[in-house]
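Fold this complex.
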Amino acid sequence: MQIYLPVAEISVNVLILLGLGGLVGFLSGMFGVGGGFLMTPLMIFIGVPAAIAVGTGTNQVAAASVSGVLAHWRRGNVDVRMGAVMLAGGVAGSGIGVWVFRLLSDVGQIDLVISLAYVLLLGTVGGLTVAESFRAIARSRRSPTKRRLHTHFWVHGWPLKMRFPKSKLYISALPPVSIGFFAGILAAIMGVGGGFLLIPAMIYLLGMPTAVAVGTSLFHIIFVTAAATFLHAVTNQTVDVVLALVVLIGAVIGAQIGTRVGSQLRGEQLRALLGLMVLAVGFKVGYDLVVEPSDMFSVVPLAGE
Amino acid sequence: MRLAVNAARWIDWLVAAALILSIDMASARAEELMGDVSARLIEIRSNYTGASIVLFGTRLGAGDVVVVIRGPTQPEVVRQKSRVGGIWINNESVIFDDVPGFFAVAASRPLREIAPERLWASLQVGAEHLKLTPRGDIKPAVAQLFRDALLRSKNDLGLYGRDRGIIEFNGHSLFRTDLVLPAYAPDGGYYVTFYLVNKGAVVETHNTFFFINKAGFERDVFDFAHQHPALYGIAAIVIAVLGGGLAAALFRR
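Structure:
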């Protein structure tokens, strides 16, 4: 059964879209990640133009994050003050990201930059996850070690100090703003929420408690991806709500199954599996860049005329 | 079954042709060539996967019939990849103005049997004869390379009908041909030109047209996204928030 995507202007099998959403939802439910970093490249693999995949990806991640944040909100795991400070950077970052995106589209290099960004990101995140989980698997066979709850890092000496009662922190506002800014750029250029970078940065750089970091990152991602969605819609007209909705339906159902399956598997093995999968997607994107294309030429309508 | 379908097709076709003939007879001067399309408007809806349309007409004079279908034009960029530091990146580019988004030709006999090549070149019959001028100051050899790539790309998408359509005759005067429009055919106005060619020269031409348009919901979404991008962006966010909220409420454990 084919469905016509009105903004992408292509016709795609609706079952493929639902399956793709379901797969990403399943993985995000199982591993507790947003899944934008898998959704956008997979949409490109099935033939959605890269620019539409990114613009629509931001919209889909916004929806998925709303759905995810509510549970954290009920448990009191959202530090609104911290999220708001990060957003000051995040919204600015997504603005710059969308502007750069437009610039790269006009010179015909956006597909290349999206691919390179994905190779870099998926390679790093996948590699680190695999390495970390293998270490954890090795460690679990030996005696458990204690980790310090809170460490003072160099960023804590910066000016503009603020109190964040929920995170039990008294730190400079500059590091959260910078982290938000970087995540905002990623959201705009790659169509991801960036939770896989935000959460470790919030835990290890800012020293936030893990549960609060997860809840607050979702809170931050909602607004950053909403801003990126709006800016992509205005600047590039690359947000396809029909595509976003169909994929979201698949993702919501997939996430429910994934959460149930995930709760029955061991954490380290789960993470190793996720890392390998992320590496595989990154490898595929990278391979397409290196392998000689079957046609050296590509044809696209001239934008803006 | 197949016979029944064919019979129904021919009856439709005869009715349409008879209609044209009657109009034709009513007019003072008998036209030597008349042609029309089976649908003036093709609507793109959510289940759109391309369309099929019948081009038909009557030939009263002597000669062969050739029909050219030309879709809406727009400027297109052709980019050439080259290897930089191990990866393939877009390097050179050439812009062509007024590139038809769809182009097809159908004829009652192979074109070379009907008239010499120079006639087809002057009429731009056949994608190889399309006048595509590169923007700016481009060397002819380079322009040719990019032009070939443009034609190849359109061909691969099924937009520049690789195979010539065949015009079938029923008796001497009634003719028809089926035109398949792929899902990638752009929306807009399509110009259809029928030629009556006898002894290597055009005796008469007849022009008509049809439209491919997004319709209903698809049209509304596309127009909204392009005419009110800010409102569309806000709507997309609202839909995302509602969708995400609904999902959370449905599956709250």
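The longest strand of chain A covers residues 297-301.
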